Amino acid sequence: QVQLVESGGGFVQAGGSLRLSCAASGSIGSTNSMGWYRQAPGKQRELVATITSGSSANYADSVKGRFTISRDNPKNTVYLQMSSLKPEDTAVYYCNLWVRGLVPRNYWGQGTQVTVSS
Do 69 and 53 touch, CB atoms closer than 8 A? Predict the structure, then answer.
């Protein structure tokens, strides 16, 4: 059973910073991708950033230069450092784990709210 436990969301003023963490437990395999998606009210869930087990990162254009994704493989934990936050970054942020295999597996965390005030 795979579990993703997120932490670090909250309320911040525009221009501020927050750091999200997501710890994975269970059978997550050695070749995988972890990342963050977000969903604002009335909008579809969208990719924020992902990082592979080999530390190759990918970012949405809207967060490039402001957000940094990283991971600690021994701890099976992924981080999202968010800086220069904007009100449009307000959303529920979901941790994602994709496990490569004959039958790829995809898992989601419960979500953590990030609210940026103007």
Answer: no
